[in-house]
């Protein structure tokens, strides 16, 4: 239903429709995954997502689950407007302390990570807290919501909501569910108590604790079933562990079918069983499944090839081989016979030297076949190509006015500086994610770190951060004087920059989809 003249696209922002829509999308995606044989060991949600988890766990019939979702959204929508929510980049303890100092009537609505908290309340009260957060240098962002969820402003709806959930047919879960209220794996009797779902509306969403509880249970693969990869990014911030696989079935910047198929493949390679026959099958026929061959499909040779030796006449090879075989035998008469030297001639002293020379020559020949030389040529860029999209520029403090920023901006790129005063993997990943937030998909990343003296250790930290962040785009690393170009540019950065070039080759092979390349700039920028 909608009022006449209402923009239908804007209805999704109203909680009565948003919650119903989220539930419908999540249930549909789960049923699709289940039809392909995907099963889980634990279930967890985030706010309305825990209602979906309860349905998937068999705690409610579809009819009762829809009744709960509809009542929840309707009652929240009926509350007075004016509530707001804001994300704060600080720990729960620090935010709670700040709220106490300000005396504002504001609640912690969600704990999404070790330094990611959401506060909720009346607009005036939240503004006081946000202002104090900014004074302390904490990152803040107002969320696009219609009401102040999980706060004291929800209290007027709780009694009526309690009467709705009390009339539902609750059953014990078939799959363990992680509680948003406690942040722990819930006991079955706890979840079937209608009062739990009333507290669930009012209390903070302890998502970070829930993810930690799953890790304690040995969970190493997290599957997000929803319209985007929001929770996937939160899990990355919480676990900070490259050994944990995070899979999202939908991403707002990717086609739906491609994202879902990719997710299915990621689950499969992580060891999660998938019924591929069901995935490919039709109502009246299923494809025939065959075993893969045991040999590799493609061989790629990366070693430098030795230059081919000049062709020799077969007769010459035979004569040469016979002579050196006589030398290596150590028999003066045999060598003398080959050379026409008499036995009484003083040749015996020369023989050991010839044999030693021969062995050394052979060893040098083998080593020489392994050697190669890399020569760099100058590339003059004279085209009129322009850059497009958003580019993140990694820099150290003091590089904010680097002339490259202005030059790149003149080429049409939107340059977003990312100042790194802490060069550690997780912190770099967090700042990249923060810089890319609410922007168009990132077209690329450029590092100016080596131009300020950063070396291979810092470059490795950035490469590792690329592997754990959801930020898209290839990384280009800039150096100066790290390689010799045509002999005209002297080597001036043998310690830091040259080592980065060695690391760059390895990173390019390990993560080819994230690595753009290395660029060595001239001594003077025109």
- How does the overall form come out from the CA principal axes? elongated
> In terms of quaternary structure, what is this?
single chain
**H/I helix tally:** 19
Strand order of the largest sheet: 8-7-9-10-11
Helix content: 40-55%
State the end-to-end distance. Answer: 63 Å
Give the radius of gyration: 33 Å
Major sheet description: 5 strands, parallel
- Named CATH architecture of the largest domain: 3-Layer(aba) Sandwich
CATH class of the largest domain: Alpha Beta
**What would you give as the CATH superfamily of the largest domain?**
Malonyl-Coenzyme A Acyl Carrier Protein, domain 2
Count all strands and give the number.
Answer: 11
How would you characterize this protein structure?
43% of the residues lie in helices and 12% in strands. It is α/β, with parallel strands linked by helices and 526 residues long. It has four domains: 8-77 and 153-278, Malonyl-Coenzyme A Acyl Carrier Protein, domain 2; 83-145, Alpha-Beta Plaits (2-Layer Sandwich), CATH 3.30.70.250; 317-370, no CATH class; 390-521, Rossmann fold (3-Layer(aba) Sandwich), CATH 3.40.50.11460. The relative contact order is 0.07.
